[in-house]
Known about the structure:
The complex is a heterodimer of chains A (about 300) and B (about 425). Chain A is about 40% helix and about 20% strand.
Amino acid sequence: MTYDDVRARLNLLAVLPNLEDVVAGDPEMRELVAGARITVKFNVAGGPKAWVRLVDGVCTVGEGTGPGKREAGAAGAPADGGGAAGAAAPSAPSVVLAFASAKHLNKMFDGSSQPVPLWGFTHLGFLQGPFSELTDRLAYYLAPSDELLAHPGYLAMNTRLTMNTAAFAVPQLLATDPDCMPLRHGLAHGTIVLKVLPDGPAVSLVCGASGVLPVKGELPHPSALVLLPSLQVANDFLNGKLDTFAAVAKGDIAIWGRIGLVDTLGLVLDRVPKYLAPAAEAGPAPAPSTATAATG
Amino acid sequence: METYSFARSQELFERATRVIPCGIYGHFSPAPLVPPTSYPFYAQRGTGAHFTDVDGNDFIDYMCAYGPMVLGYDNKVVHDAAAAQRELGDTLACPSPVMVELAEKLVGLIPFAAWAFFAKNGGDMTNYATMIARAATGRPLIVAIDGGYHGVSPWMQGGGHHGVTAGDVGGTVRIPWNDTAAFERVLADKPGKVAGFIATPYHHPTFTDSALPAEGYWQRIRELCDREGVVLIIDDVRCGFRLSLHGSAEYFGFTPDLACYCKALANGYPISALVGTDALKGDAARVFYTGSYWYQAAPMAAALACLGELVRLDAPRAMQEYGRRLTDGLKRLADKHGYELKVTGVPSMPYLRLTDDPSLMLHQRFCAEATRRGAYFTSHHNWFMSCAHTQDDLDRTLAIADDAFTALENSPEGQGGS
Lengths: 296, 418
């Protein structure tokens, strides 16, 4: 699998799911899509597929061809369901965005290329309007500056999205990154929870025989806990601004439980910036930061 | 019971992070000490089975410097031997006679050994052993155990670790512990390709229960190695001289081709050794292997003195006995407080775990509470006994553990105790 193939998987399956949080957590975005009823599908030739569904002001993102029951008025939309949340999802008209290659998709995430809409031409207005605004907002939240991070609301959203991106990158990297693939062998089973104290955000990674399942939020009975004392420390940690070893030793970051599990997943997370650091479009960049993707 | 604080350790660590990667790297890193704020990071001095940290806290030490301390810190017999050699010369232009004496001592002590070779760390020897195996057989592959630790050279680490390439680990095949059928499958799948089989005498990974060899395991491995012309390497770096004075292979009733020693060899002086069969002596000679300080004479004199003391004290028996009394006492205390303490491995190197919480968090809290009261318990690694641990140490340790269990019971996280 090429560098662009891996990066495309991360863009679609680790970065894109953050749209859910942007819609849920940004009132302006929630209002923007309040009346929308649409599924936007991303289809990379020979590569990953994902879908974004917007219904009644709620955004859901999933892997695969997604919920796609054709709704009256959605001429030309394929009836190809099967996504993670598709079965129970209310139907919505689909727009299919086709990408000739993983590189093509990555260029779109970098803002230097456009997809080819295969289906749902009648929804181009939505794509170029509200959907574009939504993805621009995602990009904004994932491109922090010191000035932006000084605002508590931005800090909270950037921390949440960066944490999500890191967690959702783990199964993709274990499956496709040449450095991470050997780590699948011997990965202990159990759930690791990464949480900002006292009330989150949090992500959980369920490690089992079939791989790693990322879940937004805190699952019960973790095998290992990584507890971050504040949004600021969490943000510094996730963006590579913190001396992690020192923070752990001083107790600023508390790690409990199966440390081996944390160590292995740490090795995976260390590889995220290779693909999603701001300079990633130029090729692998060994930046000591985590998941600061430019998207949109 | 009074609990310790670690302000000076934290202060030093803060300084260290500015000039040393990780502050403290490798197996001494605070990372697996959970929570690190309950542990000392820097030791000031050591005597007998105790060490004192930079905050002036005294600990009964159950890690023994992760193994090297076997006779007690500041052991006079070993120090005097090393000092006498230093008076004569330490690192000189030629080896010192003590090198020959030490080789003769090891060959006399370890039944299968026909020769000995010296370096500094255990990893020097496990690496050399695999080179000898490849030289002797002309084959590329080494079979090792999943989770088995043999040092930090790239081939010894798993794929995916930083600084390790696929090529580095391509010559190593990992199989489960206690699985002779898996070894047979590798031999069948890669005929004529396996140079060596390397494993510790019993399986002692971190964060996980230790596992003794199944009945007949080593004998079957020996048979398979003989049948296929594979060199059988024992990494006795951690267990060496804590199970048997004659090597841990003797303890488990089999004969290896090569055995690696380090930790308990010289009571803290820097030296490691590889011993081997006469059949491999020529191959050992042909592999070029050396280091700037590998001829240092004082550690050799220390090793000679240390081995003499280990024999005089019947050290493995003494350590096994102390470990048995300690772990029996801890199990009784755990039971009294409503917890279940599982002990695996051998008594001189036990791995302990409170089974009430599979995540280890409860056990981590217990070890931290004990350490804050003066019994240095880690939760991730097997402990080490030494010949310096006394009855007073045992009594004090059990009193500390009793108090630590009480603290655990009274904490919100310790629910589940009586």
